[in-house]
From TrEMBL:
PANTHER family: SLL0088 PROTEIN, TRANSCRIPTIONAL REGULATORY PROTEIN
The protein's name in its UniProt record: ArsR/SmtB family transcription factor
Pfam families, per the entry: HTH_5 (PF01022)
Domain (HTH arsR-type) ranges: 1-37
């Protein structure tokens, strides 16, 4: 489908699956809004829905900034830990025991 519309038969051809199994997968993708299909006569043709991944991209964007902040803070903590002198690290280890 990345090259353009394709029939269910064309999509099923390279896989070791039954036509019905491929059709079931395609129906799931269509229900999720990732593809669109239309049936003309006995032939069902599928195509990628251009905006289908937009909700996923939005979800990732919403979570990226807070995750980056957490990772930046973790990097700062690790850098501070690396800068501690061996003597201070030994003292901390003794206190934890």
């Amino acid at each position: 489908m990345s090259r353009g519309p394709a029939t269910v038969s064309q999509l099923a051809e390279p896989f070791g699956m039954t036509f019905a199994a491929v059709l079931q997968h395609l129906q799931t993708l269509e229900a999720c809004g990732l593809i669109r299909s239309e049936k003309i006569g006995r032939v069902r043709t599928c195509r990628i829905e251009p905006g289908g991944l937009a909700p996923l991209a939005d979800w990732i964007t919403e979570r990226r900034i807070p995750a980056e902040r957490h990772l930046d803070r973790l990097g700062q903590i690790l850098a501070e830990t690396d800068q501690l002198s061996p003597k201070v690290r030994d003292q901390e280890k003794d206190e934890q025991r």
